[in-house]
Amino acid sequence: MKKSIKKILSLIMAIAVISAAFSVASAYAAEEEKVKVVVKNEVFSTDDGAAWDGTLVDEWVEIDENSTLMSAVVNALDNHGYTQKGAENCYIEEINGLAAYDGGEMSGWMGTVNDWFANVGFDAFTVANGTLESGDEICIMYSNAWGADIGSDWANNDSSLSSLVFSEGTLSADFVPSTTEYTLTLPTDVTSVFVTPTAANKNFQVRTYKNEYTPNVEKSEYKRTQSIDVKDGDTIYVGVNNSNWPSMNEGAEENIYKINIVFDKTTLLGDVNNDGFINVMDVTQIQKNIVLLISFTDEQKVAADFNKDGIINVLDVTALQKYIVKLK
Question: Mean pLDDT over residues 209-216, rounded?
Fold first, then answer.
C-alpha cells in the first residue's frame, strides 16, 4: 500500500515538473519579439526575364536589442538560403539573383515599414532607438518605376485610403475612399478584429486608433499586425497623413476615417434576460433555469448556449463568465 502511495506521489511530482517546464516555455515564447518580413516581386515577371517573381518570403523573424530593419530582412532571407547584395550598405542591390536595373533603368528594390515608404534610409530603423518594434511589418518589393508601380508616388498627393479591410463583420456600405464614416456590424461572439487600411499613396503614413484619435500621443496607435479588442459602442479611427507624421510628400491634406462598432443584436449571444447587456445577470439566469429545471424559451436557448455545442449546461456558465471578465 505504501509503495503504491509513493508511486502515485512520484507520478504527481513528475507531472508537476513537466507542467512547470511547459509554463516556463510558454512564458518565454510569449516574451519573444518578432517582426514580419515580406520579400516579393509582383511587377517584373519571369516571362519578361526576371530571375523570379511572386512572394519569396512572408514570415515572422525574431528581433533583439541589436536588431535593425536590415538585419531582420537578411535573417529572413538566410532562413531559406536566399542570397542578397548590398544589405551591409543599407541599400539592397540584389535578392536571390534579381538585381536593380534588371527590369529597366527605373527598376530596383524598395521597401515599406508598416506599409509606409519612409522618408529616411533603412539604417534609421533599429530596436535600440525605438523605431523598430515587435509587431512591425517590413515589406521589400521590386519596382520597375521608382516605386510608382508599387504604391509610392511623389507626384500624387492623394491622401485617402484605397481600401479598408476588417477581419470580421460587415461594413454598412462598400468602402469608397471619399466616404469617411461607416458602421461595422460584428457577430456577438467576436471580441477582437484586425484592421488593414491601405493608403492610395503609401508615401503617406496610415495609423489606427480606438475610441480616441490621438495622433500626437506617441505609440498610441494599433499596428496592422495587431488585433484590436472591441465591444459594442467602440469607435475605430484610421488617419492618413496627420501633420505630425513624417511624409515623403508635402502639401497634402489629412483624412480621418471613422468606423462605429455595433453588434448584431438579432440574437445577442449571452443576453439570456434580453435586456441588451451581457453581464452577471445573464449568468444567474442560466444557473437558475438549470438548477430549478425551468425551461428556456427559444430565444433564451440561442442566447444561453454560449459555447455553441447544442447543450445548455455549466460549461456555458463558465464560458459566459470568462467572456464577461474579458469585457471588463
Answer: 96
> Nearest to residue 136, comparing CAs of 163, 167, 115, 164?
115
CATH classification number, 32-150, choose in 3.40.50.720, 2.60.40.10, 2.170.130.30, 3.40.50.2300: 2.170.130.30
Residue-wise pLDDT for 235-284, tens only, equals 999 999 999 999 989 889 999 999 999 988 665 788 888 777 888 998 89
Per the prediction, the chain carries an average pLDDT of 88
Q: What are phi and psi of 324, to 5 degrees?
A: -65, -40
Distance between CA atoms of 233 and 128, rounded to whole angstroms? 38
**Separation between Cα atoms, residue 193 and residue 185, nearest integer Å:** 12
The pLDDT of 160-178, averaged and rounded, is 96
What does the alpha-carbon distance between residue 178 and residue 164 come to, in Å, rounded to a whole number?
12
Question: Could you read off the pLDDT of 170-210 as tens digits, one per residue?
Answer: 999 999 999 999 999 998 788 999 999 999 999 999 999 99
Q: What whole-number distance in Å separates Cα of residue 141 and Cα of residue 129?
A: 25
CA distances from 58 to 10, 40, 73, 152, 302 (A): 46, 9, 11, 21, 41
- Ordered by start, the domain boundaries in the chain are 1-29, 32-150, 161-263, 280-327
